[in-house]
Amino acid sequence: MNRQTYKDLIRPTDDRIIAGVCAGLADFFGLDSSTVRLATLLLILFGGLSLWVYIILWIIVPSAPRR
């Protein structure tokens, strides 16, 4: 049987700027965190993404356990 591995969407504790949402999304999708942060900022500033979405993700996405 082929066993699939699943990644969890978590907010890392070591790569946070504000809440770690962008770093968690970047890790989940395999992207650079600074690129995701820049895209999120541009989307918030130009109306494509609401600040409420960021806050909701901050609440919903669990934080990584401390090591």
- Output the structural class: mainly alpha
Largest sheet: none
Q: What is Rg?
A: 13 Å
Overall 3D shape:
globular
Classify the helix fraction into a percent range. 40-55%
The span between the termini is 33 Å
Low-confidence stretches: none
Oligomeric state: single chain
Number of helices: 3
Order of helices and strands: HHH
**Strand proportion:** under 5%
Number of strands: 0
The average pLDDT is 87
Notes on the structure:
The longest helix has 13 residues, at 33-45. This protein has helices at residues 21-29, 33-45, 51-60. It has a domain at 21-60. It contains three helices and no strands. Helix 1 (21-29) packs across helix 2. The protein is globular.
Which properties best describe this structure?
0% strand, single chain, 3 helices, mainly alpha, 67 residues
Summarize the SSE layout with pairings.
Blueprint (H helix, E strand, L loop, with lengths): L20 H9 L3 H13 L5 H10 L7
In short:
This protein is mainly alpha-helical and 67 residues long. It has 3 helices and no strands.
